[in-house]
Fold this sequence. Notes:
Blueprint: E1 8-12, H1 16-28, E2 32-36, H2 39-46, E3 55-59, H3 67-75, E4 85-89, H4 94-103, E5 107-110, H5 115-164, H6 172-184, E6 190-196, E7 199-204, H7 211-221, E8 232-235, E9 238-242, E10 246-250, H8 258-336, H9 340-383
Amino acid sequence: MAKKNSAHVILIDDDNLMLTMMEESIKKMQHEAISFSSAKEALDYLNTENHQTDLIVSDIKMPDISGFEFCKTASNIRSLKNVPILLVSVLNDTESIVEGYNAGCFDYILKPLMMEQFISKCSNAIKQRQTIIKYQETASKAKAVAYEAMENGNKLASIIALSEQGSKITTIAELAKSVFTTLEESNLKSSILFDLHNKQNFFSSNHYMSPLEQETLHHIRHSDKITEDNRYYEFNNRLYASFDKVILLIKNPTEYSQSNLKDYIGAMMNFVDAKAKVIEDTLIRQAERQAEHSQVIKKFGESITELRGIFTAQMENLNNIIDLIMSELSVSFSTLDLGEYHEQVIIEIVKGSLLQLEQRINAGVQTFDQEAKELLTDLKNVLSDTKKPAHQNNYNMPP
């Protein structure tokens, strides 16, 4: 009965009695034996993809293919790399031994077959094989750890670089661009949704986001699958990471282990979410200032209108006074007994003076209107934010 972690031993000999003896010895060692009566049959099996082989024992003198030829051919099979081959033979001369080693033989077993020697040499070869496997596994793990450390180091460096750019980032378009640049260093394609100041803004690393993708991000953000304790949601080979103000979609997460990717995304998104909150606070303050400015401009305009009404009323009063003066002057002429000529001269003088006064007042009103308009325009320019709004989502979107 084969034991746990038993070796798989291939036995090749055209002598059925020898095969039976070797099979019994391998089973006593609690390993599994697979026997072939020809080297050709064994090679056909060893060229398949699913075979498991830890040791090969082959006779040298066989009718179809010799043990030396088999050894050379088997040594070139990729799956048999580091699999020991023992050759069984009556030949123990130097030339035969050298030929065997040149063909890739691990050791010789001499005939007539002595079971103690056979078991000893097979055990030694199997131990050698297991030692090599453990070394390869250890080396593979060490290599994976080294690559992971290098990869994590590179990712950490990219996050540090992103955070160092934080002071220069003032808009969500700039923040989205920095996120895409950082992720593209790891060959990650992504889309991002910012939910700031009651406005959703979508961006994509591939320059366009379909309406369906936008709708998906919107639904995932408000899904009950996302909680304070679980910010990640995996669906259809995609990874969603939802934070307070931002939700990120990784479109090709399969190249990385989920735990490492989530750690990387989490570290980056903590910074992005914090920066998004700062930008949102800036947007809110800008909106509040804009509302205050609008109120100031509105009140100033109302004051100008009120003052203009006062000027207009004063003009109407002046016209009434002029009419009264002209009426009283006509009455006074009747008591002064002046000639028609002198009355006409006095009337023209008075009319001319009053007309000049009216013209000057009208000119003053017009000047007031013009200067009031210019003052109102200057006030709007000073109070209005003439810079481009920080929340416009025109990055990576088609015209």
